[in-house]
Amino acid sequence: MNTQQALDIPKSKSTVPEQQDFDEPAPLDTHGPARIIAMVNQKGGVGKTTSSINLGASLAAYGRKMLLVDFDPQGALSVGLGVNPYDLEISVYNLLMNSRLDPHEVIVGTDFDNIDILPANIDLSAAEVQLVGEVAREQILSRVLSKVADEYDVILIDCQPSLGLLTVNALTAAHGVIIPLETEFFALRGVALLVETIEKIQDRLNPSLVVDGILATMFDSRTLHSKEVMSRVTEAFDDKVFETVINRTVKFPDASVAAEPITSFAPKHAGSEAYRRLARELIARGGAP
């Protein structure tokens, strides 16, 4: 992957790759061990939480048992699935700080079939400072998730917009990475630093880590700018770019306010179909069972 190419490519015909369909996945006979996927981008507002919730819900609808990990002190993933961060007595923060705490005491069931959540709140913001002096501090989340991995098919980690210690923990625990990328030029520039961080994690901490794909989000087919950015991303990253594109729509914030995935809030909306298609594509690529 050569991110610099994405910045240097001269303007060319702005096209979005033609999309093929993907077969509906077969149901699973057994569940686990989970494949762990980190949803990462150090830039905020690119659709990480929206994609975590809706991809998770779409995989769950195809019979995959899902654990969604809120790894952002803002707790947006928790709120988006109906969990009030302010009511939590214990959260993922406590699991990081106390190795004797059982994750089952923290995991919360949701109103949605096949979806559990490991919630977070503002307490998590203290973890980066408190973990600095810990032995093998990059592997603490990995040890937490290993205790429940056999119970799920996919564990999806929604990371904070940072490349700090929490994100490093997520990348060290993960088998794969999905990079949501807003189709906007300045969002594209930040991918270079993220790819460099992923390569360092692969080299030093997690050799089996792979990039499952780059997910174009907030795409607006009405603007030439979105089309040009999409064209540059596709030329630079080739088959690492998911064919599925997530279009900009007000239905996503509406679903967030309702604390539902868009797949249940507006099941016939194009945004719902886009995330179901992404789930099928991820399974077809081998990124999920």
From TrEMBL:
Domain AAA residues, every copy: 35-210
UniProt similarity note: Belongs to the ParA family.
Pfam families the record matches: AAA_31 (PF13614)
Annotated region (Disordered), positions in chain: 1-30
Described purpose of this protein according to its UniProt entry: May play a role in septum formation.
Regions of compositional bias (Polar residues) in chain numbering: 1-18
Name under which the protein is recorded: Chromosome (Plasmid) partitioning protein ParA
Signal sequence, start to end: none
